Amino acid sequence: MTKFTKEQDQAINDSGKDILVSASAGSGKTTVLVERVLKKILSGTPVSSLLIITFTKAAAREMKERIKQKISDQLEVEPDNQFLRNQLLDIDTANISTIDSFCLDVIRRFYYVIDLDPQFSVLTDETQGELLKERALREIEADYLEEDNQDFQDFYDNFSGDRDAEGARNLLLQLYNTVTTQPNYEKFLDELPTCYEVGDNLIQSNLWQQQIKPLLLKEVSDLKAEVEALLAEPEINGSDLAKVKENYDIFSNRLDSFLESLNKDQPYNEIRASLMNCKFEKAVRKSKKWSDESIEVYQESQDLKSDLNDQLKKIFASFFVVEEKEQVAVLQKSEKIVKTIVAAEKKLIQKFGQLKREQNLIDYSDMEQFAFSILTTDTSNAHIAQEYYQEKFNEILIDEYQDVNALQENIIKAIKKKGQNTLFMVGDVKQSIYGFRQARPDLFLSKYHTYGKDNDSEKIILADNFRSTKRVTKTVNELFNPVLTTNFGGIDYKKEGQLQFGASYYPADLPTASEYIFTDKKQTQSAYEDQYGDEMDFSEVQMVIARIKQLKAENLQVWDRRTQLKRPLEYSDIAIITRTRSDNLQVMQEFAKADLPLFVTDAQNYFQTFELIMIMNYLRLIDNPQQDIPLVAVMRSPLFNFKEPELAQLRVKTPAGNFYTALTNFASVNSALGKKCREFLKQLETLRSFAATHRISELIWSIYEKTHLLEIVTGLPNGQQRRVNLESLYERAASYESAGFKGLYQFISFIERMRKNQKDLAQPLLSDKADNAVKLMTIHASKGLEFPVVFVMGLGHQYQTRDLSGNFTISQKELGLTIKEKNYRIDSLVKSLADVQKRQQMLEEEARILYVGLTRAQQKLILVASVNEIENKQKKWLSELDQKKDTIPLVKKINAQSPLDFLGPKLEQRHDFDQTIQNMTSALEEQDKLYYLKFDLDLEPEKVKSQNENSQEVNSKVNKVVQELYDFKYPFEDATKTTAYQSVSEIKKAFNDPIDKELENSRLISSSNRYLQPIDETPTFLEEQKFTGAEIGTAMHLVLQYYKYEGNKDLENLDQEIDQLVELGKLNSLMVPYLSKEALNWFVMSDFAKEFWKQPDKLHRESQFSSLVNASELFSDFSDPSAKILVHGTVDGYFEAKDGLVLFDYKTDFVDKTNEEQAIEKIKQKYTGQLRLYEQALNEMNNDKKVIGKYLILLDARKVVPVD
Question: Is 885 annotated among the ligand-binding residues?
């Protein structure tokens, strides 16, 4: 018989109260749930009177099976117990399900309460639902446009660019996802604008008093506490640091003044002035005469000073950057836009609901909304429904309670027996990782902090971990003690959240030390950056592969709980866990190269696959053959096999115009290549004609048949999966059309939007190796699972914070919807406040996600990260841990940039980590280092030395394995380091010193895929503008591209030209104020441009070209002299002079006026290589005339600079 802990026994047997069970990872919560249900049944409670809510359908199935087994086991003891036999029969129909399934049961039983057609169908196809929602959005847009609604137009203009309205649409669609999880969505929407209502007195508004003021008081009081802690140090009061103390005393008084102004509700502008006065006096210099203790405290004071200044700057930038009048104006304008958004959102909800009703469909959000309406609508029928469930269920048991949303919480409240304590909730707030599904961990926390304080509720904590070895448990505790606190995550991990070791069944001699595999690679030196991105470094994958091979070679022993025996490690014992799935394809490729079996449970890189890229390009080409990139991509694909020299021949014959023109021109040539072009065009025209009269799905299948694409991809590696992917696209196209949508262009746009939103269409990966293969999965997919050996990868990956700097923020609580009004140079106070709150919420969830990842390990935990300049990171981490309190200050946590910022401070504190780090050894190429660190929490400091000696021996073994991986040299390695296609906009940034050498000797700093250098300093007339320098530079080019050099003109005509570009939709009207008209006027009236006025027909602007260039001319490290690269670019302009062509290129680079000559020379060096490439292309394009002059037009300096 299973022996339960005291806390487990309480969770199984206690009743008569609403019970919250806080169950840490591996604490056996599912076992407790099953035992509690069995206990209820054995005491005579029918299973039909229990409602058991699980988070997934798989969990519901498992729960049913485990309860069945328990009842069957009991029937062996009591074979004549008819009640138990009846319960066994009732399990399959018992209310053990997800909340969605329960809600569906409510709707099917009481549909008439909300006047719903009982023959409805459930919209299970997410794609079809998205399409219907998209259709509803388009229809309300059309309605608004027909009304000529200016408020709606202002809203769309605020969030969308010149090209499309995606920004505004995304806002409405994201808001829909939040709104539909609210118990009263209309009330939720109506309250959204209220946070912007400040009246005549900002300080007396609810926004200030209830939101901003408490936040400022807390943040500045925390800063004040840090100052007081420093002033309490004995050394600060000594004679050495008297001036430092004086400075801090003055600064402390200024903080007091600011806090006083806040507390007394002084006028906003006075509070702002008080904050601006919070600064330090003149810096104190360090003296060599000081004691070592004084110097140490002095350095501490300098570090603190820097942090204090940084924090105050952030407060100022968020809440005090302008005076009250402008703050109020921004709020008022934003309020108007939010009211428009609310109206549009209501229309979207109404229209989407109408489209679903027309097809008699309901989706998952409808299930919860309809069920809630049935249970709470104030009608006699509704009361019947509510009373039915309140009478039916004697107890409601909820698994994964930390992930319920607000609507689900209210549904549960509606069916709970009135006046009785019948709720049993199990969860772990430390594992609440579904914020994107509108989960509300605060609902769990509110009960966590209040239950047990009265006779109606009880809180039970299950802390014993029965999953992991003692060392894994200690590692997790050590790392999360400083991270999860009451003010960050809502729980004091040290006091109430720690895992307690409970897995005493593990043998003592198992190898279980946690490991850290770090690679140090400066981002600018990464030879793999473009191939693998910055999310997961290539070297990380190689390190994991090497370590897995080593673990297998060492015959690592794992404990098999099923057989209760040790056995050798199998590949299926290993899991690689990542934060996202974006690098899965790259990991799969490297494992295939290493001949290691890998099973990916959730690849979700559908749109990145070769076959999907190919077919989507063909569809784009059929829709519009005038697009160069899809055309060349399809021609070069295995479907048609045009080679680069052939493409170059087409361009040589037709140097101007797009590539489709070049293709059609060459089709008339009587040659093998001409015939190839004709056959290509014939098939394209056939498919275009077919597309005009047939469905999209039929078109896709016709492409498959005519090109034999399915057969081609089936013959490739992983061919069956590729075939499934293509068939999936066909099925989705059919789904698209069944939803009432038409049009190839619209379908392409829809697929592109799904790709951007990471809504892949992938089918489950086919694999015959899943039984004994390493598992690769995201942390979210790993939740609830466990593995003997776990690698957690990508820990150095930077958190994505784009949403925090976007045009809007959506929250379920407090502020709801906050927006940026783009005509103002500042964020509103509401938006600034929301960004602060959202950042902390996001990082709290990231910390919880990290906790889930680390707690999957049973026996061995291996953390893997690629870190830039780890020595600098060490110093940063060391300064961020408050060692006395064993915590990371809140301000440090909410500024975390990666998971290592949570883990690093504690790692750096460990002496064994710090000493082992000195023994790091190089294992890869020069820019990579392997940091192989063992972190044994059982070791005392004096034992560290011997461990380090052992780690050196292990390091040598790892080095040997890794070196073997790198000994093989691919014969065409050079060609893998760059793409076969380069744009001049990319190449021009790579020329290093072309003045002393000809073009063929120019070098790229790195020949890795499309290497990009950092953006140069912005010119003076582009600084501090709303638009980026690149955007304004593009607009300047645009004006010069279309400027008409004809007739009699004066300077005022430039304004007319600009106005006309705005009217034609070529130029954003908001851009006009940011154009440097002085620079534009200077050029069009310059001596250089005089010839343009005289002979405008000789002027050629924005001339596109494609040129086949020897790779060795661009990349000096190319060993293959025959390798070619197709270069595509656009020449700003050239003029047909009498003796030849004069080439010129506009530049908006900043020119330092204090040292103009040197600055201009530097710019010449920077662009000479680019202009020589243009010269080469123009010379190839023009047989009669060659380039006789090249010039840079420096708009910032007002200079025309000749280039040799």
Answer: no
Sequence-ordered list of residues with C-beta below 8 angstroms from that of 259, at least 6 positions apart, any chain = 217, 220, 221, 224
**pLDDT tens column, 468-502:** 999 999 999 999 999 999 999 999 999 999 999 99
Q: In whole angstroms, what separates CA 373 from the centre of its chain? A: 35
Residues 353 and 233 in one domain: yes
In Å, how far are 162, 651, 902 from 849, measured between CA atoms? 38, 52, 12
Tell me the DSSP string of 594-650: TT--EEES----GGGSHHHHHHHHHHHHHH-TT-HHHHHHHHHSTTT---HHHHHHH
DSSP letter string over 722-750?
HHHHHHHHHHHHHHHHHTT---HHHHHHH
Structure tokens given for 959: 């080095």
Place of tokens 């408490």: 214
Query: Is 548 found in the same domain as 452?
Result: no
Token pair, residue 203, equals 């300080």
To the question of whether residue 22 is assigned a binding role by annotation, the answer is no
Q: pTM score > 0.85 for this model? A: no
Please say which residue of 906, 934, 962 terminates a domain. Answer: 934
Alpha helices in 739-828 (DSSP H): 744-756, 779-782
- Flag whether 26 is marked binding: yes
Classify strands 857-867 and 500-501 as parallel, antiparallel or unpaired: unpaired
Cβ–Cβ under 8 Å, residues 275 and 255: no
Q: Is 23 annotated as a binding residue?
A: yes
What's the full length of the chain, in residues? Answer: 1204
Residues 333 and 193 in one domain: yes
Interatomic CA distance for residues 802 and 783, integer angstroms: 26
227-268 pLDDT, tens digit each: 998 999 888 888 889 999 999 999 999 999 999 999 999 999
For residue 949, being part of any structural domain is answered with: no
Long-range contacts made by residues 1175-1179, C-beta under 8 angstroms, separation at least 24? Answer: 1175/1143, 1176/999, 1176/1107, 1176/1109, 1177/1105, 1177/1107, 1177/1127, 1177/1129, 1177/1131, 1178/1103, 1178/1105, 1178/1131, 1178/1134, 1178/1141, 1178/1143
| Cα 508 from Cα 938, distance rounded (Å) | 13
Tokens of 398: 């909820």
The torsion angles phi and psi of 281, rounded to 5 degrees, stand at: -75, -175
Q: Are 1088 and 1200 in contact (CB under 8 A)?
A: yes
Cα 579 to its chain centre, rounded Å, is: 10
Report which of 542, 573, 544 is spatially closest to residue 556, judged by C-alpha positions: 573
CB of 951 within 8 A of CB of 933? yes
pLDDT in tens, 686-712: 999 999 999 999 999 999 999 999 988
Q: Any known ligand binding at 29?
A: yes
Query: Domain range spanning residue 154?
Result: 144-359
What one-character-per-residue DSSP string does 73-125 give? HHHHH-TT-HHHHHHHHHGGGSEEEEHHHHHHHHHHHHGGGGT--TT-EE---
> Is 282 a member of any domain?
yes
- Give the domain CATH number at 1144: 3.90.320.10
Instruction: Confirm or deny that 30 is annotated as ligand binding.
Output: yes
Cα–Cα distance measured from residue 963 to residue 953, given in angstroms and rounded to the nearest whole number: 15
Would the annotation count 594 as a binding residue?
A: no
Beta carbons of 607 and 582 less than 8 angstroms apart: no
* Separation CA 927–CA 923 (nearest Å): 10
d(CA 638, CA 646): 15
Residue 323 lies in a domain: yes
Domain count, the chain: 5
Residues 597 and 618 in one domain: no
How far from each other are the two terminal CA atoms of the chain, in whole angstroms? Answer: 90
Mean pLDDT of the residues in the chain? 83
Decide if 475 contacts 509 (C-beta within 8 A).
Answer: no
Q: How far apart are CA 72 and CA 84, in angstroms?
A: 8
Residues 371 and 345 in one domain: no
21 shares its domain with 113: yes
Domain annotation covers residue 820: no
Binding residue per annotation — 160?
no
